Amino acid sequence: MISSISSPNSGSKQPKSGKASQSGKSGRRRPPQPQNGNPEIRSPEPATLPPQQGRGSRNGANSPTSSEEFTTQDFLSDPRSAINPRKPRTSKTPQSKTRQPRKKGLAAVDMFEFPDPNQERENVSSIASNPNTQIPTAPPPTTRGSLPSSPPVRISDTVIPADAKKPPVPKPRPKASERPGKRSAPRSVPPLVYATRLLILGVGIAVICGTLLSVVNAVSRASTVAPEEQTTAGQKNQADSASAESATPEVLQLNQELGALKTQVQVLATENPSLTAGIFLVDLDTGSYLNFNGDTAFASASTIKVPILVAFFQAVDEGKVQLDQMLTLKSEHIVGGSGDMQDQAPGKKYSALEVAQKMIVVSDNTATNMMIELLGGAEVLNQQFANWGLRATVLRNNLPDLEGTNTTSPQDLINIIAQIDRGNLVSVKSRDRILQIMRQTRNDSLLPKGLGEGSVIAHKTGNIDTMLADAGMVDLPNGKRYLVAVMVKHSPETEKPAQTLIREISRMSYRYLYGGETPADSQVKIKN
Q: Is the separation of the CB atoms in 129 and 121 below 8 Å?
């Protein structure tokens, strides 16, 4: 491209090093006045496209109106309008009509956009026809690290044509930290890490397999249980009773049955066909036992007062009842039969311990009814009896229950006394009080009559018109202890033979367990 033409008599000096003079001595400088007589032509510069915008700099020559000259007056009026105030260096050359455009150097050629050669030919032909024509010049290309050779031209009040080509925006150079580098070689993993990963993987697989197996097992069990649920109601009841029996812990550790003693008892029972006897005996030292209709349910009579007494002391141990708690005698408590509380007027006060003692010692029926009410009634007591493993013991009516609706068995009576002795249901203190109360039983006409001197028995009797029973714990002089319960069902006319049968069974048991004597033949025959 060819530089614009200026007058030689402008009187202006070119600033040195591209710096505009801003001294106060110069005053206001005039813009150069071109003269028609002596035109001056600036040295041609290589025609290049406007330089791309560099980092941190602006170049005003990228506008299509860059032919407008940057004047000193504009710079003095607004010094901030230019980044670099240097003007392009001019040289005087004679005007020539055969002027040819200077060849471009390779350094001025843009690597991506090349100038149109037809446009250059048009510019050269226009200058040849009219040397005074000003041709817009493009500033020389700037190299990296150097300032532009000509100051940027201030663009004021100009409109960029729509068809003007915008310079390409250079891509920012990536920072050193963002430049792609060589990938680091993968680090070797220690064998321990591999082993740990394999272990975790194995555990996870094992858990999944175990879950699947459990699901399959549950499905198979459900499929096998479904046909079993289609059994009859009777079979279900038997299964329930069997499960209840297995859930109840065995209180007595039974080893072997006393065969010789059982044979003599059977002979004695068969010689008295009018009597139905049930016997259960256990040697607590050896675990030997005798069972003759021991699990048969009989009318309990007053023997049901033994589990009621245990329930009372269990409530005392739990803090639900106090021994000195006062109970009031009510009219609905008073009943006939044994005992002396029936002769008292309603409203009389008794301590709970006194009521419990009267219930056992004198077998007071009125005291028993007061105790049943204190403990929550028959339903609550029956639930406790079942929890203790008493299968035949059921309380259905208050005492005296002459009809015999309340039931128990010789085995249940031995079971409850054994639990008293071992302290399974009550504390040691309550156990001692229970046994002390039972040793004070005043009716000693049955089991105590078959014992020898030095023997001690804690027992409870029962007697109604059709039932006679006695159950207790016997301590022999030699230190041996055994439990025995005998229940005999009889007619009202055979009460005395029933008493004799209980006494003889007690005598035979005492002799067998104390001295090892067993009569070869029973000499006892109970006559009706």
A: no
- How far apart CA 480 and CA 488 sit, in angstroms, is 26
Angle at the Cα of 332 from the Cα atoms of 326 and 337, rounded to 5 degrees: 95
* Across 18-44, average pLDDT: 44
Exposed e or buried b for every residue in 245-275, given b needs 16+ CB within 10 A?
A: eeeeeebbeeeeebeebbebbeebbeebeeb
Q: Using an 8 Å Cβ cutoff, are 377 and 358 in contact? A: no
Placement of tokens 């980044």 in the chain:
83
pLDDT tens, position by position, 408-464:
999 999 999 999 998 889 999 999 999 999 999 999 999 999 999 999 999 999 999
Instruction: Please state, in angstroms and rounded to a whole number, the distance separating the CA atoms of residues 369 and 398.
Output: 6
Q: Nearest-CA neighbor of 448 among 477, 483, 468, 474?
A: 474
- Rounded CA-CA distance 240/237 in Å is 5
Are 293 and 279 a contacting pair, CB within 8 Å?
yes
| Residue with token string 């649920």 | 229
- For the beta carbon of residue 164, count every other beta carbon within 10 angstroms: 12
Distance CA 229, CA 50 (A): 98
pLDDT at 53: 46
The beta strand positions in 163-288, using DSSP E, are 276-283
Choose among 470, 478, 432, 471: nearest CA to 453: 478
pTM of the model: 0.55
Task: Determine which helix (DSSP H) or strand (DSSP E) holds 35, and give its type and residue range.
Answer: none
Strands (E), 364-436: 407-408
Q: What is the pLDDT of residues 461-514, one digit of tens each?
A: 999 999 999 999 999 999 999 999 999 999 999 999 999 999 999 999 999 998
The residues, any chain, with a CB within 8 Å of residue 181's CB and separated by 6 or more, are: none
pLDDT tens for residues 187-220? 676 888 888 888 898 888 988 988 888 787 777 6
CA distance 504 to 519: 12
Cβ proximity of 416 and 296 under 8 Å: no
d(CA 223, CA 210): 20
Torsion (CA) 316, 320, 325, 327 in degrees, nearest 10: -110
Q: Could you tell me if 335 and 367 are in contact, meaning their C-beta atoms sit under 8 angstroms apart? A: no
- The helix/strand/coil state of 194 is helix
Whether the CB-CB separation of 108 and 46 falls below 8 Å is answered with yes
Q: Each residue of 397-406: b (16+ CB within 10 Å) or e?
A: ebbbbeebeb
User: Rounded to whole angstroms, how far apart are CA atoms 333 and 344?
Assistant: 11
The rounded mean pLDDT for the chain is: 74
Q: How far apart are CA 528 and CA 526, in angstroms?
A: 7
For residue 346, pLDDT beyond 90 = yes
* CA-CA-CA-CA dihedral for 226, 229, 232, 235, to nearest 10: 130
